User: Which sequence fits this backbone?
């Protein structure tokens, strides 16, 4: 769905594109590198319209795996050159989500992948029920921005055009906000937030993050981080989806007086927070 | 490489046009260049400076092909329609496919067959018939369509390989050509003995027919989006690298075990290639908007257009080979008269036919 001049005119029905969901394995040896072939094609086609629209909204089915959608923006060079992923927004039904989380893998993954979560239908649950749902969401993904909504009412500027995927916001994370879940089971998705007040050794960091993403990529849904290296005025930003990892020095430098704290978040399965924290601490220069 | 230092040839022997829309393809109708564009308009231009816009689609024109009977252009749009645009400017709807995009359109003047790629279906019109005759269904969305020189054999690429059919027959058998990965555009050699497809992972995959022998053609920096056969099918020129990559298709085994010829090396990617229709030289369009003429015999390159805009997205010779047209993603376009002296410089006279 393409939104034309959002907010003023609303959605122009002529610009809604139907596509058959086609998840492709990339034939490049990376076992979890799946992409959405339909998305690659559509973005390419839309670019021929040259500036006739402001943004592209991709609405997946409730059962879609968000990974191939996000990975398409990493893997396909043409898509990467022409478009950037602004944010992954997940709408959560406050009344039914606990049941869905128990019986559906996809519900959990869609929360895990989110940059923004709209916790909707909050008027249909009790305050205690709402609190329980929030705890559960936070245990899966402790760093998405969460809005409580009724009828999904929210100003568009809170969900569109945010650059949420560019991770700038990661500095706002409360590092110790890691909800403890009582009925944790083996393949439950959790978030692990790591931070270090000492700059990291670049080589050790690269080796460590490459090792983790290549050996445990299937378990890792999202990786995001901003890293400080010694004597490097620019911030190093890393982000990943499963095994795909991209990292680069950002144009933005550390501000004068800004604490140069390296932060890294993993969202995935079978994550041992204590072990990762120990390893991360050992990377200091 | 011998690059002839000079002002771009377009300034002496051609004309530039500045369009407001991305050029998606160029075809020649009655010796006039028709530029299909991303805003749904076809622009007809001449080297004398004529400029005639023809509003066609609500949205981008994604595909186009010269009408088999001449005098008209067939276009497919993201408005789900296939149109026939006649020389008098009239538009006739050939087909309408709801919210599906018409991403592929091929036609053959020899057989009169028209085929449109609509999602997972190839829709076929037979010569002189108003309504589509039949449809072929594939397991995934069509990445590319190609007809052979006679316009009989139809190749369709898709996820996991390609399919080969007889376009005119509703009950045609389907020869499955399998190769892992997602296949995009494709081309059939005129005699139908080779099918070559471009892969999502970059590189080409070829099949020698009818044996179905696999041929891998790799090493590309980007996806290949342009194929062009030389006039006697000696070479297949391809885009997707910082040189035009020409694979030799002479002899019984084609490019198997042979190295390609690399022409027109640049810091910029070659996005479009077009062989001269009668001689062994080609035009190449680059990602920086430049255009060059490249000789296959002497490694000579002539600068046609300097880097003025975004990637060249369409490049086409008039059938007599005396005029070249190009267009870019940003809407820069040009026409060049290629005089006999230039042709001679690029294709030494020993190669001239006759």
Assistant:
């Amino acid at each position: 769905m393409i939104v034309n001049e959002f907010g003023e005119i609303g959605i122009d029905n002529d610009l809604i594109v139907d596509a058959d969901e086609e998840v492709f394995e990339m034939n490049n040896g990376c076992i979890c590198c799946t992409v959405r072939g339909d998305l690659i094609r559509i973005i390419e086609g839309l670019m021929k319209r040259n500036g006739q629209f402001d943004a592209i909204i991709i609405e997946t089915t409730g059962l879609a795996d968000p990974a191939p959608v996000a990975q398409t923006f990493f893997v396909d060079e043409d898509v990467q050159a022409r478009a950037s992923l602004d944010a992954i927004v997940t709408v959560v039904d406050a009344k039914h989500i606990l049941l869905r989380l128990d019986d559906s893998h996809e519900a959990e993954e869609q929360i895990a992948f989110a940059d923004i979560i709209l916790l909707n239908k909050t008027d249909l649950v009790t305050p205690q029920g709402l609190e329980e749902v929030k705890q559960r969401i936070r245990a899966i993904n402790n760093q998405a921005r969460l809005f409580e909504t009724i009828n999904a009412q929210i100003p568009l500027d809170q969900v569109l055009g945010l650059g949420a995927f560019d991770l700038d916001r990661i500095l706002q994370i409360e590092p110790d906000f890691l909800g403890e879940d009582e009925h944790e089971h083996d393949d439950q998705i959790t978030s692990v937030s790591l931070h270090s007040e000492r700059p990291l050794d670049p080589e050790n960091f690269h080796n460590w993050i490459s090792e983790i993403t290549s050996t445990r990529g299937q378990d890792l849904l999202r990786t995001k981080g901003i890293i400080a290296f010694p004597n490097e005025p620019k911030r190093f930003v890393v982000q990943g989806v499963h095994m795909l990892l991209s990292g680069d020095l950002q144009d933005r430098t550390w501000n004068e007086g800004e604490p140069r704290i390296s932060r890294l978040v993993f969202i995935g399965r079978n994550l041992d927070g204590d072990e990762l924290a120990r390893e991360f601490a050992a990377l200091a220069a | 490489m011998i690059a002839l230092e000079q002002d771009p040839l377009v300034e002496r022997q051609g004309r530039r046009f500045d369009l407001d829309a991305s050029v998606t393809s160029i075809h020649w109708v009655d010796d006039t260049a028709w530029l299909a564009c991303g805003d749904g308009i076809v622009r007809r231009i001449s080297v004398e400076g004529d400029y005639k816009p023809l509003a066609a689609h609500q949205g981008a024109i994604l595909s186009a092909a010269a009408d088999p009977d001449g005098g008209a252009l067939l276009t497919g749009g993201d408005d789900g329609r296939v149109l026939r645009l006649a020389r008098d400017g009239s538009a006739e709807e050939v087909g309408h496919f709801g919210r599906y995009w018409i991403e592929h359109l091929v036609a053959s003047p020899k057989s009169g067959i028209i085929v449109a790629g609509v999602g997972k279906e190839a829709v076929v019109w037979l010569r002189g018939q108003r309504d589509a005759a039949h449809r072929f269904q594939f397991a995934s969305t069509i990445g590319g369509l190609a007809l052979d020189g006679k316009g009989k054999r139809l190749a369709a690429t898709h996820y996991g390989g390609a399919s080969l059919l007889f376009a005119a027959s509703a009950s045609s058998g389907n020869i499955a050509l399998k190769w892992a990965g997602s296949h995009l555009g494709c081309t059939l050699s005129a005699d139908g003995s080779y099918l070559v497809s471009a892969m999502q992972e970059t590189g080409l995959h070829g099949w020698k027919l009818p044996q179905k022998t696999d041929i891998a053609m790799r090493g590309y920096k980007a996806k290949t989006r342009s194929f062009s056969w030389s006039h006697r099918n000696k070479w297949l020129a391809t885009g997707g690298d910082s040189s035009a990559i020409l694979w030799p298709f002479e002899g019984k085994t084609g490019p198997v075990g042979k190295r390609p010829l690399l022409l027109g090396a640049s810091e910029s990617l070659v996005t479009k290639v077009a062989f001269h229709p009668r001689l062994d030289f080609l035009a190449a369009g680059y990602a920086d908007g430049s255009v060059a003429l490249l000789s296959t015999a002497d490694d000579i390159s002539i600068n046609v257009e300097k880097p003025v805009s975004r990637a060249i997205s369409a490049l086409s010779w008039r059938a007599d080979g005396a005029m070249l047209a190009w267009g870019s993603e940003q809407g820069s376009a040009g026409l060049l008269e290629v005089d006999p002296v230039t042709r001679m410089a690029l294709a030494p006279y020993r190669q001239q036919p006759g």
